[in-house]
Amino acid sequence: MNTDPSLKTRREFLRTTMLGSALSWTVPAFLANTFSALQANAADSATQVATGQDSTILVILQMAGGNDGLNTVVPFANDHYHRARPKLGLSAKEVLKLNDGLGLHESLAGFKELYDGGNLAVIQGIGYPNPNRSHFRSTEIWQTASDSERFEKYGWLGRYFDNACPGADPTVGVNIGRQMPQAFAAKTPKGISLENPEGYRFISSDSNRQGGMSTSEESYRKMNEREEGMMAEAGSDGNSGGSIGSISGGIVHSGSPLDFLERTALDAQVSSDKIRAISKRVDNQASYPQGQLANSLKLVARLIGGGLPTRVYYVSQGGYDTHTNQANTQQRLLKELGDSVKAFTDDLRVQGNLPRVLVMTFSEFGRRVAENANSGTDHGAAAPMFIVGSKVKAGLFGQYPSLAPTDLVNGDMKYNVDFRSVYAGILEGWLKTSSAPVLGRQFPPLICV
Amino acid sequence: MLKPIAKENWNFTTAAHLLNRAGFGGTPAEIEHSVRLGPERAVSQLVDYEKIPDHDSNPKWAKPDPTRADRYMEARKADPETRRKLQQEEQRKQRQRAVELKFWWLERMAKGPRPLQEKMTLFWHGHFATSTEKVKDAYLMWLQNDLFRRQATGNWLKLLIAVAKDPAMLVWLDQAQSRKEHPNENFAREVMELFTLGEGRYTEKDVSEAARALTGWNYDRLNQEFAHRPRLHDAGEKTFLGRTGNLSGEDVLAQIVAQPQAARFITAKLWNFFAGEEPSDALVTALADVFRRSDNNFKPLLTTMFLSQEFYVSSVIRNQVKSPVQWLVGSVRVLERELPPPIVCFGLTRNLGQDLFAPPNVKGWDGGMTWITTNNLLARYNEAALLVQGDTSMMKGASFGPKAKANMQLQNRLQNLKLKPVALTKILTEEERKDKVKLVSALEKRLLQAKLTEKQEKALHAYLDGQSSLDDITILNAIRLMMSTPEYQLT
Question: Helix (H, G, I), strand (E, B), or coil: what is residue A155?
Fold first, then answer.
């Protein structure tokens, strides 16, 4: 069921009105803005998405490589911690205190500000039963929300799109990157991937030559349009089975590779125009640090500000696999993380969109409690997650797992909140959809929004 | 089932299909040649490749490196600063070699005289997916690749034993760490789950018993080779898939291959790889039967598959999404151009989502429609301009990896690279270069071995009509446009 009628209405609106379809991506931004404002004044719900002021948005931030949660949310007063971490352990002076026993890594000043301002929730001790210490497998478990022993074909966000967003615009999910995250894998594929708006287009070679009436770009567009009558099928469940995709006959059955390619080509063309137009509508209004994560979030902020009808954005930051000399690497990465996310929230606040946006971080696992012989840490299990936004119930959630050696399992902390409870809380509390069809069964939702 | 294709159905389309799937495609002349050979001889030429001499040389570093262990020890003893430098130097060298290795293999695919051998090597690489990201030794990656090539169409059990003892695999799935006291179950599990039987065809007990049987198979880091260490082997009694005794690693693999499911699993996966569709249950039964009757040897199975009517039905022909490697190698073959330099090839394939020797995980690349995202489709369209027009500015903004600095360096090297465009006189006759109608149909035949839709043809003609003259620039643009269609992404 489509629980967000405004998305569909918006799409139909764009298709069916002259002004609407002209508005889509050819009209200069100022005109478009004026038009949107007029419509908003008229309280026409169909344009709510275009003005970028209604539905909630989820931003997933993947910290790839397995972040050391213990040195991120630090139990600085715990003796077991310091015994296990003679070199890497952080003292009371080296953390930003959250309370008498816990502090954030000192490079997370951005997060501390958010915490103090009531915009950050820290969920402690997240994990799942029978934790897997393989990067690949554990990432897959988080992406598909599967049990540790089961392989799921589709991602948890893909199942959300399938269940709650049928008929939505392909940009309902936007991944900043090249490969689709497995979390987006869906029965009816949705969502787009892009690395940067400049490269996300058909780059014409015509600039090399003078004159010429027709450009190759126009021809590219025509050659990538679907045959008439195909549009209606887009978004329908494409699984006719036993189909024949014969090119010479021009017969295309939905579900065939050609059908899928044609849809993707159209999605690419439309979203490329749209994204280039939208990403230029607003400028970033906060000072971001350098780095790939900040660049990704800058783009997301512009797309939100420009009114792309997206429910889920996906960004990632890599490098957390700190087997050797962890201190410097993690210091740099967490600073980049905290500063980038803080700038992102500042930017959205100026836009007025912060109340609509929730950021959720995750990493495939935490790391071993005891440091290793190379001033690093090896793959572990339970770790904290961060939830950021102005609507978030700020503070600490869950319980810090015990570090007493007898409570550890194979040297790892034992989780006490299943990550799928966090997903359930976000699906129900933020995306306003039932979580059981998405997660396969009902998990007790951890409500922090 | 599996009746040979009738002679009257052997034509340009079916011959092109064979060359596309059993190899990396053919030029119109190569396809015509296969048509003349007839199906049996065309298939035999691909499958019985040992008759064709292969002169290619190996990368110069493709041999054990006796100083590697010394360097490693030296680094361990050094102070942290020096150690880090030495490690960085070693990593840089291995990365450079990995780039060379990728190119070396792509060249074999693009130019080698034994396309099926390379295609099967690619199949095994995806099947026993091992990544340099963990192995971090280009020589070991080459060694595994060489194993896949040597045993590409041999015997199933022989191949499995060789893979289980392959140094890169020993490192990749942690068999190198397995000891009698602490058997590591990683390889023992994956060999059944992903390589031979599939999930649910064995018990957890089978996994732990197999892991015990496999102890003693280790890796000798010093000599970069397999080591059999009886002292680390658990010689106690085990029960595995119904067989009890003091089982060895060989016994375990033999017991796996003895399962009827083992033949079904691998034949179904091969059909999927070559035909591009899930085989029906009846087809799997027929394929597995052929395989078992030939003592689990791949060659007779492949011959049967490539000659079968089922392989040439219309739902199979031109209905498979090209993998990025198929896209790149196939493109340079039909464009009759050289592969771009190693670093560009690395960027191109990585950018499209298939970095050779670095599959995303032990499951390998999912393939099929998962190759295609909006980003990757546009990247294919833009990379086509690089191959056709030699325009490296197309790669502006493309990412070659997560490391900003390395990425920037590659970008800079790309900007300074000048690539040659396709030599049109090689692939088009003078007549075809002068007549728009003949041009379009010659390009369709060469690039698609099928026709564009009417609408697309019209658009392409409109483009040609809009240009002041039918010069090389116009024709190159037309080729690029034809490659920038959904249809060109299929084979």
Answer: coil
